[in-house]
Amino acid sequence: MTRIILGVEYDGSGYSGWQWQADQRTVQQVLERALSKVADQPVIVICAGRTDAGVHAFEQVVHFDVNVKRDLHSWMLGGNSNLPEDIRIIWVKEAVSDFHARYSAIARFYRYITLNRPVKSALLRKQATWCYAPLDAGKMHQAGQYLIGNHDFSSFRAQGCQSKSPCRIMYFIDVYRDGEKVIMDISANAFLHHMVRNIAGVLMDIGAGKQPVDWARQLLEVKCRELGGVTAPPHGLYLGAVYYPEQYGIAKHPVFDKLPPDAKRFD
């Protein structure tokens, strides 16, 4: 068997998330069907991080195992020719050693984009979250720093989250303004269900002046999702990149230069 690794970007607005669901169109379903045509046999893909309905990816990482020979160019060219326009394979490589798209990852990076202006956008209606109230990006950034480190993120996980532990290591949260957009860049060793969107919702309330900066710290300490504020919409969320040990030969996104040297895989 040969293990192939793909980098995949997609616009998730037309999908019910990443993972296979009965009677629903998902990114995994469409990608597997396209690759199965290239392989001329069923292909099952494993991703670095499952995304929810409406969530996008700049660079999702997946792997799959096959017992047929195809050159790497054929996987990309053939895969993309069988994919719809809102999903694209952007790079392909053969795996080395014991690579696993999910379990070999050291960190994930997400970006949340909020369009902050009085009027909704006709062009970005499914690519960014709209907020009419003026947001103070400085206060949002300040509040986010309370969440850096190894914490129990119970206040920021979905009530139906199936993870065994609510603890994660948050490496950085940067919030900044780019014209009419307020952008949140966030990285951790792993994320709980809805964790990024719940953090975004809290920081947006702080940025809009509905809550004090210290609210982020209070929620972290209380460990109660019921007190944690609203879940931000999915449209502004993007899986940005995944970071792996150098031995696997996957290019490191520059954003991961901020990670501490002792960052390790999440078990």
Overview in brief:
This protein is α+β, with helices and mostly antiparallel strands and 267 residues long.
Commentary on this structure:
Strand 8 and strand 9 form a beta hairpin. By secondary structure, the chain is α+β, with helices and mostly antiparallel strands. The chain is 19% helix and 28% strand. The longest helix has 13 residues, at 27-39. Strands 1, 2, 3, 4, 5, 6, 7, 8, 9 and 10 form a ten-stranded mixed β-sheet that branches.
CATH C-level name of the largest domain: Alpha Beta
What order do the helices and strands follow? EHEEHEEEHEEEHHE
Helix content: 10-25%
The CATH H-level homologous superfamily of the largest domain: Pseudouridine synthase I, catalytic domain, C-terminal subdomain
In terms of topology, how is this protein built?
Blueprint: E1 2-10, H1 27-39, E2 46-47, E3 56-66, H2 72-81, E4 87-94, E5 107-116, E6 129-131, H3 137-144, E7 149-152, E8 167-178, E9 181-188, H4 195-207, H5 215-222, E10 237-243
Parallel strand pairs: 3-10, 5-6
Antiparallel strand pairs: 1-3, 1-4, 2-3, 5-9, 5-10, 7-8, 8-9
What brief labels describe this structure?
10 strands; Alpha-Beta Plaits; 267 residues; 2 domains; 10-stranded mixed beta sheet
